Amino acid sequence: MENIFDLDNIKDIPDDLRSQLKLKKLDDFSDKLLQLFELAERELSVDEIMISYFRKYDITKTRRQIVAKMYSLSTSGHIERVPNKRGVYNLEEKKHCEHI
Q1: Contacts of 16 (CB under 8 A, 6+ apart)
Q2: CB 3.0–4.6 Å: which of 36, 46, 83, 98 could bond 9 by disulfide?
Q3: At what angle do helices 28-40 and 63-75 cross, to 10 degrees?
């Protein structure tokens, strides 16, 4: 069943209504990282994220940039750290987005 409260996918909402929404939009970097998780359909390590980000977008990001953004995405509830695995993240189960 479709989630009628889903704020991550508002493609079906008319422009006039969409312009009135006060949704916090993700920056391009965050959006691209979430797309990698959607493509992988599994947990990813920081190393895997760094390599796949470069291969998919032809952009180099430092480990520090990736880790900082992973922290930001985890505190906002988009991803979660995998317990007992250092530097490994997964999409929050309730937040699987339609970015692709």
Answers
A1: none
A2: 98
A3: 80
* pLDDT confidence of residue 99: 47
H/E run at residue 31: helix 28-40
Protein fold of 29-95: Arc Repressor Mutant, subunit A (1.10.10)
**Is 66 within 8 Å of 53 (Cβ atoms)?**
yes
Q: Which residue do the tokens 């007992």 mark?
A: 84
Sign of the four-CA dihedral 18, 24, 29, 31: negative
Length of the chain: 100
Q: For 81-94, what is each residue's pLDDT tens digit? A: 999 999 999 988 65
Is residue 57 within 8 A of residue 35, CB to CB? The reply is: no
Cα 34 to Cα 22: distance, rounded to the nearest angstrom: 21
